[in-house]
């Protein structure tokens, strides 16, 4: 379905646990099922709220609901998985503001200096924040999945023996939703690592993606290098041979340049010459960033073009 990120007040909930102090009439139940069915049918990921459970509060505090949410597609998570949703303390409005970790970290970093230094330090600080967020959101994914599966299985067995009360039914649903989100996040992480172009929706892809990662590592590895009649296998010998080859290849030569014998090739006009030295415009740079492949290997700073494309409006002034 493409890269989708839908943010706003939907004025609807997906479960009764997202409302307190509000009577769920028959019409509201139908609306709730319809909204949940829409999210499931469109295969959207509902980003969990961090910081608070609800985003709307009645003025007298008697009722509260989670009406504001962010829905993203799987493709959007693959392109840019480093995002989170925080519910901050509200002001006079009855809704709480939602902010992204990247924008907040970028804005709060007040480092000064020349532009290259500012960019380096902001990326460095952002990396720390993203690592903290990743540890909270995706740390110990395998262990969390195992624990969720065991908890769901315990509830299933209890339901077969004695039946489940309403609270246990709700708990099982919450555990299943959390497990589903965790599995989707793991698939997106593996996809980004493998940089595979063959993802099809609905694949049981963990084994496939691990195979892609292993195959790519093996394909890129240099286990031996032949120099003349000698095979080099030591990593130190291979590194020295590669460095020596490219040093010779790109070294300046002092050969006599050929004489063109009075040939006068066409020359660029003054206007064409001037066009070659025109400074780059922000629009040209932005267009190149947009057209780039976001899943290519990241640079030395560990940020790939998917990050630049999705955070361009935040970081473009420092770039």
TrEMBL record:
<protein>
    <recommendedName>
        <fullName>LINE-1 reverse transcriptase like</fullName>
    </recommendedName>
</protein>
<dbReference type="InterPro" id="IPR036691">
    <property type="entry name" value="Endo/exonu/phosph_ase_sf"/>
</dbReference>
């Amino acid at each position: 379905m493409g890269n989708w990120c839908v943010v706003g007040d939907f004025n609807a909930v997906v479960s009764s646990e997202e409302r307190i102090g509000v009577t769920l009439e028959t019409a509201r139940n139908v609306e709730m099922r319809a909204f949940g069915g829409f999210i499931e049918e469109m295969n959207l990921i509902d980003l969990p709220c961090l910081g608070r459970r609800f985003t709307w509060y009645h003025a007298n505090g008697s009722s509260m609901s989670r009406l504001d949410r962010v829905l993203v597609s799987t493709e959007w998570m693959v392109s840019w998985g480093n995002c989170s949703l925080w519910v901050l303390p509200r002001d006079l409005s009855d809704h709480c503001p939602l902010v992204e970790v990247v924008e907040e970290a970028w804005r709060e970093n007040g480092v000064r200096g020349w532009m290259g230094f500012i960019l380096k330090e902001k990326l460095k600080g952002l990396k720390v924040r993203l690592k903290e967020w990743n540890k909270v959101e995706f740390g110990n994914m395998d262990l969390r999945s195992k624990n969720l599966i065991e908890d769901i299985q315990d509830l299933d067995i209890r339901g077969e023996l004695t039946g489940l009360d309403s609270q246990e039914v709700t708990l099982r649903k919450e555990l299943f939703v959390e497990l589903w989100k965790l599995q989707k996040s793991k698939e997106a992480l593996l996809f980004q690592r493998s940089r595979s172009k063959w993802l099809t929706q609905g694949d049981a892809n963990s084994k496939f993606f691990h195979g892609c990662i292993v195959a790519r590592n093996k394909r890129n590895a240099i286990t031996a290098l032949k120099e003349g009649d000698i095979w080099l296998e030591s990593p130190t010998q291979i590194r020295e041979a590669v460095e020596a080859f490219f040093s010779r290849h790109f070294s300046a030569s002092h050969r006599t340049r050929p004489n063109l014998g009075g040939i006068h090739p066409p020359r660029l006009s003054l206007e064409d010459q001037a066009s070659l030295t025109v400074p780059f415009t922000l629009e040209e740079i932005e267009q190149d960033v947009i057209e780039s492949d976001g899943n290519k290997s990241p640079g030395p700073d560990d940020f790939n073009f998917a990050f630049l494309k999705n955070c361009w409006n935040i970081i473009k002034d420092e770039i």
